[in-house]
Amino acid sequence: MRRVVLTALFAAAGLPVWAADTPKPATTTATVNPDEIIQKFAAKEAEFARARENYMYRQTVRILELDDGGNPRGKYELTEDVIFSPDGKRTEKVVRAPVSTLRNLLLTPEDEQDLRNVQPFVLTTTEIPEYDIRYLGKQNADEIPCYVFAVKPKKMVQGKRYFEGQIWVDDRDLQIVKTYGKGVGLLKRGSDNQFPKFETYREQVDGKYWFPTYTIANDTLHFQTGPQKIKMTVKYEDYKRFEGKSTIKFGDVVDDNAPKAPDSKKK
Q: Does 144 map to a domain?
């Protein structure tokens, strides 16, 4: 995010990964093979990513700009439906977009990338080489036994956004069920773009895959002109699998009102 008077909206790029406010996982188990778990959950995540491309859902983003007392003084809201066109192409339809009343903040292209790709973070087999992944131990996430990993990009490419933080992987389904971190990436020199720490939760909505359902950020962004408190929520709702429809034609269209030819009789 940006200051309207300068640049940027969300948690400071270039800051070290937080430690004091990060949940501490339980001690590691000697029988765990982290490399094997990583390969297995990355394969499951790749399968999930392909499946999610065939789902429709509604996404609602709300960003509140807070004063020093924590009271809202500006709001941004956008509700979109991710749907499919009649020819089967995935598209987005704006459902609700009130005029923004934010005073000091401005969404940037980096924020939009984070909303689409980083906050609902998916770590697939093809993306594994881009990250350093370190096993931290086992810990429950909402009573779900999980493997916990620290994740950060090895090298960043200009124009691409990455996730940095921790992920909780269900020890049975081997899919990510929770993430805690922030979006990071290379920024232009002198940019005052700031990015918040966030938590994203997933739920099993189809009996097989764990889908992102809720993201929350409650953070203070430290701009060059001073701090700004923000609260952000993102809801992903009404997941429905897209079923392509085919049109079947049985010969020519019959007009019941057209004159009929007289019956011919054999002699």
A: yes
Per residue in 253-262, is it b (16+ CB within 10 Å) or e — as a string? eeeeeeeeee
Residue 157 lies in a domain: yes
Does 140 or 6 have the greater pLDDT score?
Answer: 140
Nearest to 121 by CA among 139, 81, 130: 130
Q: Write phi, then psi, for 40 (nearest 5 degrees).
A: -70, -45
CB within 8 Å of 84: residues ≥ 6 apart: 56, 90, 91, 242
- Considering its fold, how many domains does the chain have in total? 1
In a domain, 57, yes or no: yes
pLDDT, average across residues 102-107: 93
Q: Which residues pair with 3 in a beta bridge?
A: 105
Strands (E), the chain: 2-3, 55-66, 72-84, 90-96, 105-106, 131-141, 144-153, 162-170, 176-184, 198-204, 210-223, 226-241
- Residues 187-221 pLDDT 10s: 988 889 999 999 999 999 888 999 999 999 999 99
- List % helix, strand, coil for the chain (3-state, nearest 5): 10, 40, 45
pLDDT digits (tens, 9 = 90+) for 211-266: 999 999 999 999 999 999 999 999 999 999 998 654 334 344 444 454 454 444 44
Q: Which domain holds residue 9?
A: 2-13+32-238
Domain membership flag for residue 259: no
